[in-house]
Amino acid sequence: MKRFERLEQIRRMDPFREASEIYRLSAAYEFPWDFTRALELALYRTYAVPTIGRLLAETAELTDRSQKRYDDTSLLLDAVVEHGFASEQGRTAIRRINQMHRSYDISNDDMRYVLCTFVVMPKRWIDAYGWRRLSRHEIVASAVHYRTLGRHMGIQDAPESYEEFEDCLDGYEEAHFGWDPAARRVSDATIDLMASWYPRPLAPLLRTSTLALLDESLLRAFRYPPPSATTRALVRRAVRARGRVVRLLPPRRAPHHARQNREIKGYPNGYRLEELGTSPVPGVRGCPVRHTGRSAAE
Question: Would you list the domain boundaries of the chain?
Answer without folding.
Answer: 5-275
